[in-house]
Amino acid sequence: MTYETLLYKESIDEGIAWITMNRPQKRNAINKKMIVEMGEAFRKAEKNNDIRVIIFNGEGSCFSAGHDLSVEEHYPNTSEERIQWERKYYFDEIMYLRNIRKPLISQVHSYCIAAGLVLALMADIVIAADDAVFNDPVIRMGANSQEVMILPWVVGEKKAKELLFTGDSLTAAEALQFGMVNKVVPREELDSAVYEMAKRVAMMPPIAVSLVKESINNTLDNMGYTNSMKMHFASHLLSHSTEEARQGMGTDKRGNLKKYFAERDKSFKS
Predict the structure, then answer these.
(1) Which of 28, 1, 216 is nearest to 104 (CA)?
(2) Cα separations (Å) of 6 from 34, 40, 203, 216, 242?
(3) How far is the C-alpha of 136 from the C-alpha of 210, rounded, in Å?
(4) Any idea where the domains of the chain sit in the sequence?
(5) Model's pTM, two decimal places?
(6) What CA–CA distances, in Å, run from 62 to 112, 140, 265?
(7) Domain covering 6-190+201-245, topology
(8) Cα(93)–Cα(84) distance, rounded to whole angstroms?
(9) CA distance 62 to 241
């Protein structure tokens, strides 16, 4: 199978699959087509008993700049359409990645923003280059973060509030300090570091690894993880209906969003 927005590669002998976002000209901005193809690619890797580990990364200058907000992309206008669209094409697919029955490693370099941040943090292990920058600026758009509220679970309450109240970024070193990533390596060593980690995990008994992952996920669920995600999703959808969101997202200025966001964010620069 070939994809328009992804690259897919398998090494059957090693038990590793690579799923790579491949819209480098758009900084791997995530559109509907990519979400659909991700679902197909991850399910293909999950169903293949020869694959024991999945690596998720991005082609080009950065991991991902987040949702594709360009004028070419259609986003629902009514609340009814938005609920159906975001549930099907984002929330359900994100939660699927969290619960996929094989270990998933995110390989992050440069910008990892908003929807890209959530995708990266759904992985079981995150390895970042030293140039990685993590950011969820959605508060500046007037909305309640991304569709999935992952930050409190990976950096803790206080840091999550700071990041989400301000829309500020974390460097790779800060992300490591707060437990967002497992390891930070020089950019030129990122491919090999992720590959070596994947090979180590692939050596383990696959059913045992799958059960360990499920046990850890169940532990978090007993602490309220999945229910918290569902409650947040409803609040996120509600926030889109506000005048703040209309202004912050430039609903009436979609012809030149890059210029609009740059002007909007001037006051946030320190």
Answers:
(1) 216
(2) 7, 10, 27, 29, 34
(3) 30
(4) 6-190+201-245
(5) 0.93
(6) 7, 22, 21
(7) 2-enoyl-CoA Hydratase; Chain A, domain 1 (3.90.226)
(8) 13
(9) 31
For residue 46, give both structure tokens: 């999950």
In what side-by-side order are the strands of the sheet with 16-21?
A: 6-11, 16-21, 53-58, 104-108, 125-129, 183-185
Do 54 and 19 touch, CB atoms closer than 8 A?
yes
For residue 174, count other CB atoms closer than 10 A to its CB: 17
pLDDT tens, position by position, 132-142: 999 999 998 89
The three-state (H, E, C) secondary structure of the chain, written as one string: CCCCCEEEEEECCCCEEEEEECCHHHCCCECHHHHHHHHHHHHHHHHCCCCCEEEEEECCCCCECCECCCCCCCCCCCHHHHHHHHHHHHHHHHHHHHHCCCCEEEEECCEEECHHHHHHHCCCEEEEECCCEEECCHHHHCCCCCCCCCHHHHHCHHHHHHHHHHCCEEEHHHHHHCCCCCEEECHHHHHHHHHHHHHHHHCCCHHHHHHHHHHHHHHHHHCCHHHHHHHHHHHHHHHCCCHHHHHHCCCCCHHHHHHHHHHHHHHHCC
pLDDT, one tens digit per residue, over 99-119 is 999 999 999 999 999 999 999
Residue 148: is its pLDDT beyond 80?
yes
How far apart are the C-alpha atoms of 213 and 178, rounded to whole Å? Answer: 22
For residues 85-99, b (16+ Cβ closer than 10 Å) or e, as one string? Answer: ebeebbbebbbebbe
